Amino acid sequence: MKIWHKHLQERFSTFPSHQQIIMVANELNRANHHEHNVVEYKACLERALELLDFTIDDKDKWGGKYRELLRARRYLASIYNQPDTFIETSVLQRCLIQLDVQAWRLTNPQRKDLAPTPSVHPKVTE
């Protein structure tokens, strides 16, 4: 596979988790727009794989969601390895975005009522 982001790897871990996930989802979205152009579709998938690898390398930031990133990576690789076949990536995009609350909020501003919120324990007063 070609290296697409030559100078991004060393600073990728400085990006917040929502930005990392949105960058991967953006490439998957681009792939969906190239249904009839196999070369560009595969290039988008390669870039998404590369960004997902950078995200996975930032293991400490993802904690318990790390295994979900690995699962997404495995699924994306299986899509990439399908010869000359277009496979919709919208479901994978949504799954990745749901891994980070801020990414979900940024990509779904009209659905604030359904936004996942971190659990907050009520303050106990004596």
Please characterize this protein's 3D structure.
It is a single chain. The chain has 126 residues and is mostly helical. It has one domain (16-114). The protein contains seven helices and no strands. It has helices spanning 9-12, 17-32, 38-57, 59-62, 66-80, 90-97, 101-107. It is globular, with a radius of gyration of 16 Å. The model is unreliable at 119-124 (pLDDT under 50).
Write out key terms for the chains shown.
126 residues, 7 helices, disordered C terminus
The percent range for strand residues is under 5%
Task: Please describe the biggest sheet, giving its number of strands, its sense, and whether it closes into a barrel.
Answer: none
Structural class: mainly alpha
Rounded average pLDDT: 85
* Number of E strands: 0
How helix-rich are the residues, as a percent range?
A: 55-70%
Q: Which word captures the global form?
A: globular
Could you give the distance between the termini?
62 Å
Low-confidence region ranges: 119-124
The H/E string reads: HHHHHHH
Q: Quickly count the domains.
A: 1
